[in-house]
Amino acid sequence: MFPAAFDYRAPTALDEALAILKEHGDSAKVMAGGQSLIPLLKLRFSRPEMVVDIARIDGLNTIKRDDGHVVVGALARHADIERSQELAASAPLLPEAAHWIADPLVRNRGTLVGSLCHADPSGDWGSVILAMKADIHARSSSGERVIHGTDFLKGPFETALKPDEVVTEVRIPVGKGRGGGAYLKLERKVGDFATVGVAVHLHLQGDRIEIAGIGLTAVGPKNIQAVEAERFLHGKQATDEVFAEAARLAADAAEPNDDTRGSAAYKKDVVRVFVQRGLKTAVQRAREAGA
Amino acid sequence: MATEVHMHGRIGESIKRKEDARFIRGKGNYLDDIELPGMLHMAILRSPHAHARVKSVDTAAASAMPGVIAVVTGELMAQHKLAWMPTLSYDTQAVLATDKVRFQGQEVAAVVAETLYQAEDARDAIVVDYDVLPAVTSPDQAKQSGAALIRDDKENQKDNHIYHWESGDKDTTQAAFAKADKVVRLHTFYPRCHPAPLETCGCIADVNGATGKATIYMTSQAPHAIRTVFALVTGLPEQNIRVISPDIGGGFGNKVPVYPGYVVATAASLLIGRPVKWVEDRNENLISTGYARDFHMTGDLAVDKDGKMLALRVHLDSDNGAFFADAQPTKFKAGLFHIVTGSYDIPTAHITADGYYTNKAPGGVAYRCSFRVTEASYMIERLVTNAAIELGIDQAEFRKQNFIRKDQFPYHSATGWVYDSGDYHRAMDVALDQLGYKEMRKDVEARRKKGEVTGIGIASFTEVVGAGHGADFDILGLRMFDSAELRVHPTGKAMLRMGTKSQGQGHETTFAQIVTEELGIPAADVAVEEGDTDTAPYGLGTYASRSTPVAGAATAMVARKLRDKARKIAAHLLEADEADLEWETGRFYVKGSPDKAKTIQEIAFAAYTNLPEGMEAGLEGVHYYDPPNMTYPFGTYAVVVDIDKGTGQVKVRRVVAVDDCGVRINPMIVEGQIHGGLTEGFGIAFMELITFDADGNCIGSNFMDYLLPTAWETPRFELGETVTPSPHHPLGAKGVGESPTVGSPAAYVNAVIDALTPYGVKNIDMPVTSDKVWAALRAAGVNE
Amino acid sequence: MSPNLVGLARKVSMTVNGAPRSGDVEPRVLLVDFLRSNLRLTGTHIGCDTSSCGACTVLIDGEPVKSCTQLAVQVDGRSITTVEGLATAAGLSPMQIGFHEEHGLQCGFCTPGMMLVGTALLERNANPTEDEIRWAISGNICRCTGYMNIVKAIRHAAMLREQSEVVQREKAGVASGGE
């Protein structure tokens, strides 16, 4: 129940953190809130030699508007996102999703970026990133790069990050006009991982769906972008029949396992139900946003 | 001397709890809070395999690690004849594995070190070589002729069958079934779940070589019984063993058995000469300690064409794990399951039960079950609802038609129980009224017409608690009386000690109130102590809702003994005849002259300063109470559910719970117990499960897999009450702690079945998870 | 002897219940163990090993956090409140009184965490609805009470705080509305 021994540093500057990572590579783990890492350390599933605590680095916890994007810093906690006025105005899907993550105590420490980098296929943020077509900004001691959301998650607990990289922020495009989203989560109880989670986000042009994003949680080896469903929705009228067909396509894109939370067939059907409900809600909200 | 004392805390008053003071300050004294000088810490290595031969245990590396004082193996324990220990069911259980491991999580070795971090680090360094064997994971599998033999350590054990037990009358029942107009059958599985108290189990064993005294702090619901068992198992003289149960963070039956960790810690302390603390973590608690239920049951109910119940037949297969360690009265292999005729006047019944070994943790009788009454109540209440549905009779009406009537008490059941008192019709009517049943049924119909999936479930349970009369009830031969010792000090304050042990039930308050009622000493002036075997009178502990029926009775009796002595002293002080004195709570006065009185406080003082000639000084006594019968709390619970057609999720819209536990000593505490049990029942019905894969790997051995309801999922409860006193209990009280876990699971599940009845669904086994409901809906063509 | 002093021990300092406290710990030592073993503040409890139960809840800079899922070194320099810090010289806190008055505890094991979460909630939301209370404590498991009286206890505390606020305002001669 206790971690194996490790060394620990809490740098106050990003460059310092990057230097440590460059030195230790694979045997170091970055920690922000610790809500994903510490449980793994305690079970000794993870045994790093060095833990780099980035929580004391200034400037990484901001949530701000920057041109056509909303920028969520690496240290922005789920609780900060849930309460953010900026996000409530420009990207309300994020506060809605944040509300359902883990439990209130975890939300006081865990971060969006930390959770995303942990890359649990049952993690909610991956689906939100996919649905909102966000970009991830990472830095190492050799420089900076931008990783598109669709390229970031590689597999269970695996991302496109190199061992010496730290994600500094996530940038979410927030188009003008009538955008709306919804996050639906089936959990057996508060604090359980999703049985199924669905993030939907879309923009309306008139009464037609211009851009759609659908991300699926806990139904595959990583969060899944329902590409076929998104393509189908593009340019379509926002009607119940359209929602139903998109939902069907999204369910087809899901690759869930049979497990104690339910059969694969069950989870696929919940994807269908949730996408259907989510699209309806997202359209309603998009209409209200533009009104 | 002051004579006016406010009589605060009589029976029926919801006085605030005296024990709260330390808990709200964070000054509770739980096992893990205790630190003794020189104390060491122990960590147990457990088997990753469900069934395997142990070829070797290499402790060399572990022994060399920093801070390690000792590494204990089965071999070492065997040298001291402690590798095996008796269970509470006259079987044996491995303390540390020697030949084989027989369930995943079984104890294999233990490290004792200066710190717990060091003990766990060293534990990782122990190397065990296993030869994996096929795992047996169900009674069906255990029965097969080719099945692996689990208990090859037992000389006469040729298969995996443990016991066969019967109750009732086979022939009469068979005859009744032959004549029945209709027989309804239900096969149901009450799955393995776990009491999971928030505080895990643990002990500090302090065997002092210099004094010869062994002090064992232990999370134990039954410290005296443990002391005696320890004396028998370890050979330590019983007068030198002191078991102290400190504050306990929830028990629910999980803290009754003797666990291997306790024995190893004690042996380690004996060998090392320093105190050894062992506190299990949650994984250990869930994977190895006393689980609950795991009964495969088939019930048949015979009825006539008018819906009158004629006979009941039940067969059960019990999955007992690798060692038969049920903590129940010895004479009853399947506990009190044969209460299964429940609240109904069923003339004849026949129960058969078979227990089997499997490669799982031992236990079975736990989790607020009243010794398997949870299983029995679930069986009959599900069967009765299914029968009602099949017969086309309303669930409530069918029950009322067949309830034992009030005038039939004391009622002799077909399986030999004598129910003390009851008024089942009244509890049902109060519940239906509180729910607004008629309107609710109409509302259900209206919603169904709109395509909603919704239903109402009812359960009318009869409990049997208060174990029990010594001739019938014993644990390892120790008769199940209980005790109360009461001392009144010169200044009129009192100390009450009992053989029970609260784990949150509020004994420090409730039992003080009994003294207030009987002797008139305010509850605030009565200190209540339990749990230290050096000072508390012998008792069998707290579980199975027995404290109020047995120790509560003992408290009333001893208080009355003291009152009798007080009367004599009062007569002496008032220079009157005993027969001329009247008692009103707290004082004796001379008939016709109420001003000529002496308070109990004045009498107490006199007991030490001014006694009648020839009378022994002091005002104290002890009473060991042998209950003449069990007590039979009962009630009706009603639940309304709405089901999401898209996801299969069940939302509990209303829960109405009407309980009758006889006289309520502290209504606030009684209601708290009911809230808690209804929540555990909710968890059991909808989310709690310990299960195993084909290799015997345990799924449900941590709180990510073993799901407990939070405040968000848990429904609000609407409580009601009726009061039908127990005619044989000195206070008319019956006990209540387990009624809600006994009665509520069937109510929750019956509601779901009722909601799905239009779709032809007859049963869904617990936990009723959303995927199971979804599957039932889709099979019936219902979709969103 | 201070436990957990092996290998790469380093000094941590923090404010606990208003007082400066420090100790030498390895980085891997959990905050809950530091509180319980090093500081002997045993009111914070351990109920599980997967960060699932909330029995270990403390306030860090006023916010409820699971102390089993924080390293002691992580909270160096921070301000921690445990259950032992709820009462003041003036007496029990409204939350503690609420739990006692409403029978919000039975075995008491989850109670410290529940009270701290309730305290933090009322700081942010002085008059929470039942749903808001249940949501706020949804990270804290109770096995005994069924949560009904915990909700009442937190509401009771809210009422006491409101009353004392009214008294304060009246004392300060501030109009309490309607004038």
Overview of this protein structure:
The complex is a heterotrimer of chains A (291), B (784) and C (179). Chain A contains twelve helices and 14 strands. The model of chain A has no long low-confidence stretch (mean pLDDT 96). In chain A, 37% of the residues lie in helices and 26% in strands. In chain A, helix 10 runs antiparallel to helix 11 and helix 11 (240-253) crosses helix 12. A seven-stranded mixed β-sheet of chain B has the order 3-7-1-14-11-12-13. In chain B, strands 9, 10, 15, 16, 17 and 18 form a six-stranded mixed β-sheet that branches. A four-stranded mixed β-sheet of chain B has the order 21-31-32-35. Chain B is of the alpha+beta class and 784 residues long. Chain B is globular, with a radius of gyration of 27 Å. Chain C has two domains: 10-85, Roll (Ubiquitin-like (UB roll)), CATH 3.10.20; 94-171, DNA polymerase, domain 1, CATH 1.10.150.120. Chain C has five helices and five strands. In chain C, a hairpin with a 2-residue loop joins strand 1 (10-16) and strand 2 (19-25). The N and C termini of chain C lie far apart (63 Å). The chains are: A alpha+beta (291), B alpha+beta (784), C alpha+beta (179). Chains in contact: A-B, A-C, B-C. Chains B and C meet through helix 1, helix 4 and helix 17 of B and helix 2, helix 3, helix 4 and helix 5 of C.
